[in-house]
Write a structure and sequence with these properties.
Layout lengths: L4 H23 L10 H4 L4 H18 L7 H30 L3 H11 L5 H7 L2 H27 L16
Length: 171
Amino acid sequence: MKNIKIELKWALIFMAVSLLWMYLEKVFGLHDENIDKHPVYTNLFALPAIGVYVFALLDKRRNYYNGSMSYKQGFVSGLLVTLFVTILSPLTQYITTFLITPDYFPNAIDHAVSNGLMKRYEAEKFFSYQNYIKQGLIFAPVMGILTSAIVAIFTRKKGFGKEEQQPAHPV
């Protein structure tokens, strides 16, 4: 458990950041009066999401690998964060849908239909809790793997002549 404690902590932080982002979207009207701007601004979440992965891998490097970490170690650490984020995604979506912004789906459906973007049945199928759960279970691992692969490049750091640094804690 000690060897995955850091990744679990950062997955929980990722969940908290995601929920905070959803709350801010709601506060700024992106789920109701400014819903037309939602598709643009929601993509900015990539910045804090990548930031969480950077901090997670730096934490792993500093506190588990004694300051040096190979690409492979960083990538595996990122994959573990991704696994936990994916497991937590239905809970994150539940909190978002039913506690933070219960009017988002009806507003999104109405917006899509009134602007001719979708037929009502298409919008109701797309903007639904069940569909967003499915999307999260696909999107979280895909983006997490990609983010892990890239962030691991920038967070790797060679040790003192050793290619694969041993963990600070026995496994």
